[in-house]
Specification:
homotrimer, 328 residues, alpha/beta, Udp-n-acetylmuramoylalanyl-d-glutamate--2,6- Diaminopimelate Ligase, Chain: A, domain 1, UDP N-Acetylglucosamine Acyltransferase, domain 1, 9-stranded parallel sheet, transferase (chains A, B, C), lipid biosynthesis (chains A, B, C), Trimer_LpxA-like_sf (chains A, B, C), lipid a biosynthesis (chains A, B, C)
Chain lengths: 328, 328, 328
């Protein structure tokens, strides 16, 4: 938070929107509608929380036009109150610039290229010939293997591993023969990569992550995967080798996408779904066993193992009934 | 293991229970019933392994009263033989105290607070203003981001990441706008966190892990999750943002809990289950496709995609049959 | 890539196979059939890509006998073109030997044993009494806990954690009592371990990984698991404690295998499958909800919760129909 805070009218001057109430109010930080107090700005985006708007003690609130009368507190009216909130928060909490942008403990290989304003925190290891674009930030203990390229303004969280070998082996008798993984990982601009996420280098050609892609924590991206611009994936997702993910796709937490498949643009995969076939048309796709009390699940799961037979029995019933109907 | 071992009667003097057989036997370590030999103590807790009790060569055995006659070896009789075993093992294998409690390679930010007896192994990075309570141990290469608070007697395994940014973005056209993540991670006392587990900082308010919580490896805890005291989760679990997990809940390996849900106290989620709705009543909940031979699965899964139609056909049959019955 | 490349006839002299076309062609690297150009060798293994063989611009191609006439380019004919390719790639891309095989930032505990030619990259931490066999390579930021043994020619990728405590607790009132984990991890020869994969030490006896086992990224192996020789597992797999996995088993991405189960030799588990019972016979096993459009899934999943009742209704119909048939 900045030392003196920012006046509400100053925020509107910088970010637009219209101001209702006292523009001289100073804002130091953000808070939730329920938790915010003096010096804190909050926002309402989801109408579900409308009742909290009336009772909020926030110093100011960002609201969409439809809810601008829901409080008498000083407020900024903005068409998209959530993106407006994001911009205010970015203003109030600028990224901290460490005293030494590349921490002395960082290990840089030969011929590493670092852009302007790159920040690399302690414990990172950057392999030979890797490059990191302007304004990118690597949090502690990130490993970037040799030859990988990271674009501008990347934000890579602790423990992420970029460019480890893909999982490539040829069966040789009962043993596995290593296929050298000679491709790279190429990451576009404005990409965020979560903590302990791993992105493997390509087997021959490169693994490619498009511009604006956002990957949460503990995601595994296999070799030669191509992820289109502005795709976003939640935690614990696994993408097997050579899958192609379209632009603006979203993948819910814990979903698994098998190898060599193609997801078209604007495909959305629900959490916990195993995608075992290509999905070329836009839309939401799901496959997950509904949770229920264990006893109920036991019964239903037992029948699931005989579903094919149950369908045969229904077919048999239909035939017999049809014969009976003819007779009667 | 201690140099001279501990006499069996000394163990009973310290930990209680009743002794049958030679109390002068010296114990240096632990072993399984099948594998233990001279100087090793074993235990029987699960009646399934009762037959191993008769043939064990362990120097001594910890047994519940009901099985105290299952062997003639020196033995300690304790109501709960498993917790008794845990205490004996803690006695025999005290945590090693490294010569330098905070390894010289550790990177500490500004204003970090470390309690009494904190041990931090090599390669850890602790952000500005973080605090770690008395007696906590951080294994190698752990990252704690700025401002996070870890309670007393924590045990955090290698590669864990505490306080990385939550996955928060606002859709802005086709791109994603970063929501600064300004909350912290607050961890109670007596918490164990597994290797490469990640716990994200809160978006506005904090992510909170209660006292006595045990998290296995490779777990992902999203921003603003609240986990109640003494909950325990097995490996590869994912908890999405703002989920609230009750006290004493357990979550099996690989389960996924969606965001903004609530699990009441004493809810137990089976392995591999996707929890897509709140579960407020105590009990065991499950949702998982039963494994079977691939050919059988293929048939059943094909019918699953037509289950809704199958149900319609059964309904139709019921109607027709009822009409036929009326006629006949 | 070597400075001067290798002549095609030199490759055949070293690796066998038969040469068709100009043996004087020099090869510097590998490429895909579609992407390779001057100086690059490609291969055809999957007949699906046969059409690319006719149009490839690769300097040379490795083909199986059945496809040796699919191009007029210089080519090597080999019974198994994929393993042949693996060996050519190993020739062209020998592992880089760093100037200092054990990077100065590496932290070695007391009594660590390192074999001949071991390479340990920056940021690794090796605990007291651990041993690493000849020719093994540890990429950056790997942690090996005290006492663990790694065989010869291991390749361990960044961020992997070998030997953290298994997840062992005894219920003590509402709290959990720590069971000291006093076993080790014992890893055979020729094992590859992926980035951020974790293998826990045994509770009493050891966790054992056989020779030639290949583990992809982000896999969790619980305490006392035993994995047979030449098993291979894809990313994000979780193996719970004390499971025994047979020789040559394969496990698809994201599969979960519960504790204390046994998979026989040559069992193959499909991606995304939860294995909740022992599978002793060889073969492919699957359990996963098929993905479909969300609306269709909603309908089918709703009926799944009543599958047991649906089966009862079918049974009832069969009874009634049989009675009607008797009457008519």
């Amino acid at each position: 938070m900045t030392g003196e805070g920012i006046r509400l009218d100053e925020i509107v001057a910088r970010l637009g929107g219209s101001l209702l109430g006292d523009g001289a109010v100073r804002i130091w930080g953000v808070g939730t509608l329920a938790g915010a107090g003096e010096g804190q700005i909050s926002f309402l985006s989801n109408p579900k929380y409308r009742s909290q708007l009336a009772s909020t003690r926030a110093a100011a609130v960002i609201v969409p036009p439809a809810m601008q009368d829901g409080t008498e507190r000083p407020r900024i009216v903005a068409a998209n109150s959530y993106t407006y909130y994001a911009r205010v928060a970015q203003l109030l909490y600028p990224a901290r610039q460490p005293k030494t942008p590349v921490h002395p403990s960082v290990v840089l290989g030969q011929d590493v290229q670092l852009g302007e304003g790159v920040v690399i925190h302690a414990g990172c290891v950057i392999g030979d010939g890797a490059s990191i674009g302007d304004g990118s930030v690597l949090h502690p203990n990130v490993t970037v293997y040799a030859g990988c390229r990271i674009g501008k303004r990347a934000l890579i969280h602790a423990g992420a591993v970029i460019g480890a070998d893909g999982f490539g082996f040829a069966k040789d008798g009962e043993a596995w023969l290593k296929i050298p993984q000679v491709g790279r990982v190429i990451i576009g601009d404005d990409v965020e990569i979560g903590a302990n996420t791993t992105i493997d280098r390509g087997a021959i050609e490169d693994t490619v992550i498009g511009d604006g892609v956002k990957l949460d924590n503990q995601i595994q991206v296999g070799h030669n995967v191509v992820i289109g611009d502005h795709a976003a994936m939640a935690g614990c997702v696994g993408i097997a080798g050579s899958a192609r993910i379209g632009r603006r796709c979203t993948v819910g937490g814990g979903a698994i996408i098998l190898g060599h498949l193609e997801l078209g643009d604007d495909v959305h995969v629900s959490s916990g779904t195993l995608v075992a076939k290509s999905l070329k048309q836009p839309g939401q796709y799901t496959g997950a066993f509904p949770v229920e009390r264990h006893e109920g699940w036991l019964k239903n799961a037992a029948h699931l193992r005989h579903l094919s037979k149950l369908a045969d029995r229904v077919h048999e019933l239909e035939k017999k009934l049809s014969e009976l109907e003819k007779k009667s």
